[in-house]
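Researcher: Dear colleague, please comment on this protein.
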Amino acid sequence: MSSEEDTYLRAKLTEINGAIERLTQMLNRMIDVISKITEVQDAQSDIILAVNENAEKLEELLTAVSNISHAAPSQPSGPSITQKGAISTHQAILDTLETQIRDGVIASDLATKINESADMLESKGVTGALIVKMQRWTRILRTYGRVDTISPTDIQKLRNDIKEWSRDLSKMR
């Protein structure tokens, strides 16, 4: 063999050796990926088992709660604890509204706040005359200009109405 052939052969062997090393690295990466996939599948199987167990426990709890609610005595007359809590929340809304009423308050801002309070009370289940009265004040206050202050007479009337609204809420308790 000539030296040219030896050089050519060495170059080809080096090329083949590099390809084998790259192939080995790729195979090692594939093995890592396959082992991760296996871990994920095992974890998924564990999760499925836990979900099934939890579903069974939940079904048992629902059955127990259903049995308890059927066996529970009827509620005594008068508002429930939940209703009393809701009424307290309504009262807090009115108290906050009253603190915002003062000489020099801008009518459009107050109209917006009263309207928001009425909407909030209505969303909490309060209905009837109280909401109508609050909406009436919203309309009255919107008759003022954007930056007009409320007349002292209207402020006094509004304060009196808010006290009445508080009494109405107290009656709901």
The two ends are 110 Å apart (CA to CA).
